[in-house]
Amino acid sequence: MNFQIVIILLLFAAALFYLGRMVYHSISAKKSCGSNCKCGVDFSNIDQIKPGK
C-alpha cells in the first residue's frame, strides 16, 4: 500500500471517530435535563404564591 494512502485512511478514520464522539456526547444523558421538569433545581426555600390572595 502506498504511504500516502495510509495517511489518508488514518485521517479519515480519525475524522469518523471525532464525528461519532460528537454525536454520542450530544445524545448521551447529562446530569440535569434541559427540559422544564425542574429536576436540577431546589425550590424548597421559596414561598409559594397562592392565586386569589
Automatic annotation (TrEMBL):
Pfam families, sorted: FeoB_associated
The species this protein was found in: Mucilaginibacter paludis DSM 18603
Superkingdom: Bacteria
Name the UniProt record assigns to this protein: FeoB-associated Cys-rich membrane protein
